[in-house]
Design brief:
Elements lengths: L5 H23 L3 H9 L3 H8 L27 H7 L7 H15 L7 H13 L3 H28 L9 H15 L1
Helix pairs in contact: 5-6, 5-7, 5-8, 6-7, 7-8
């Protein structure tokens, strides 16, 4: 006869794990996103924004002379860079699926008009997965990033506040549009 209930032991272990994360966050006083950003010194968002060339200012310099360019060379930012910046763990299967979906949406934005019939099946073919599992994996990855402080990072990146987590389709659209504007 068993004396210990495995279900209760599992519940206790999960409670201890959750409380440990809260204790660490309270003792450090930073979210995971802020902690990573402080260790790097400069966020990927700042690097991305610093790499965008400034518009040429007309009327500077002598007449007929070429306008002065003060822009830095562009840094190539990939979908994976953006996902990492938004604190989505690279160990999630949804991370790679999101990366593929964003790249496909950058290639053809019309794929976002009907993601269930066009975008998710293409991603599913790449990863040998069903449409439902692709959608679930992406959603789980976005939720993980949101819990890690990705909401603050998304606000920094896009300059818009998001009080609630965007749905998967909107999340892909936001990042694909960001990359399209940077090309």
């Amino acid at each position: 006869m068993l004396t210990k209930d495995p279900v209760k032991e599992t519940e206790k272990a999960l409670e201890q794990e959750a409380s440990f994360g809260e204790v660490v966050e309270r003792s450090i006083g930073l979210s995971l996103g802020e902690l990573v950003e402080s260790s790097i010194g400069q966020s990927l968002g700042e690097l991305v924004e610093a790499s965008i060339p400034l518009p040429e200012k007309a009327g500077q310099g002598p007449k007929g002379a070429q306008p002065i360019r003060t822009a830095k060379p562009r840094v190539a930012v990939t979908a994976a860079d953006l996902l990492r910046y938004l604190m989505i763990p690279g160990t999630c299967l949804g991370f790679r699926q999101l990366e593929t979906a964003i790249n496909l949406a950058v290639e053809d934005e019309n794929r976002l008009l009907n993601v269930i019939d066009e975008l998710y099946p293409l991603v599913g073919k790449c990863y040998n997965a069903t449409v439902n599992s692709v959608q679930k994996n992406m959603r789980v990855a976005i939720i993980a990033g949101w819990k890690n402080g990705g909401d603050k990072q998304l606000e920094k990146l896009l300059g818009l506040a998001y009080p609630v987590r965007p749905v998967t389709k909107d999340f892909i659209d936001l990042l694909a549009d960001y990359l399209r504007r940077r090309l």
